[in-house]
Amino acid sequence: MEAFVKSEIKNGIGTITFFHPQSNSMPGSQLKNLAIEIETLGNNPEAKVIVLKSEGDKAFCAGASFDELISIKDKETGLAFFSGFASVINAMRKAPKFVIARVQGKAVGGGVGIAASADYCFAVQGASCKLSELAVGIGPFVVGPAVERKVGKSAFCELTINATEWRSAQWGNEKGLYTDLFDSMSDMDRAILDLATKLAASSPEAMAMLKKVMWEGTENWDTLLIERAGMSGTLVFSDFTINAINKFKAK
């Protein structure tokens, strides 16, 4: 299967599904399309709530595409790439309706950032997570504000510093990254449908106001996340990062 991002609306529930054959990783084009779909459903009055999910059963999202990372040769290209994650996070933040994330597998790097940017996040027991950026010579600069907002500074530092170690879904649940955990995807999907159906019947105006209240203090993220993208964009084409990524790919 080729990579895709698609959306549909049914009974007031807008569902966005993304897929990439390399563990649902994110090249720049995929990030751009995902941000567009989130913004589109956010502005569509037929969608009362948004469910964000990925295809497959092993990885929710493996974060940045390694193939694209090692192709970056200058700061401008690096900034443009990491700005894609900023666009996705800001689209989720500014959508005037709740975003529910369905995490059916492992989340790495930017994938953790996407999960953290959801207003409500369901996950299965196998949805372990890690912020692996430091291990390849960069850092979780762009996703950092979203992750820290959700799990707190201490847990964010834990993820960032011990970059090669997986944290269990139970850890994610205890820290607030995942709201609810399930033993199976079918159980999770029933719970998602139940909540999304209830929200689709709720007041759109009230939910939009609540969304603003819940995200108070993040109004500077339009500029902050772009500044953070520049930090990652500067580091990504270093010899250290290129060598580290190539070692990861060789495993």
List how many beta strands DSSP finds: 9
| CATH topology (level 3) name | 2-enoyl-CoA Hydratase, Chain A, domain 1
- Based on secondary structure, the structural category is alpha/beta
- Strand order in the largest sheet: 1-2-3-5-7-9
Number of domains: 1
The portion of residues forming beta strands comes to: 15-25%
Describe the largest sheet.
Answer: 6 strands, mixed
In short:
The chain has 251 residues and is α/β, with parallel strands linked by helices. It has a single domain, classed as 2-enoyl-CoA Hydratase, Chain A, domain 1 (Alpha-Beta Complex), CATH 3.90.226.
Explain this structure to me?
- This protein is an alpha/beta fold and 251 residues long.
- The chain has one domain (4-200): 2-enoyl-CoA Hydratase, Chain A, domain 1, CATH 3.90.226.10.
- It is 50% helix and 16% strand.
- It contains eleven helices and nine strands.
- It has helices at 28-43, 66-69, 75-94, 110-117, 144-151, 153-161, 169-175, 185-200, 204-214, 221-235, 239-250, and strands at 4-10, 13-19, 49-54, 59-61, 99-103, 106-108, 120-124, 129-130, 180-182.
- It has a six-stranded mixed sheet, with helices on both faces. A three-stranded parallel sheet has the order 4-6-8.
- Helix 1 (28-43) runs parallel beside helix 3 (75-94), helix 3 runs parallel beside helix 4 (110-117) and helix 3 (75-94) packs antiparallel against helix 10 (221-235).
- The two termini are 23 Å apart.
- 46% of the residues are buried.
- The mean pLDDT is 97.
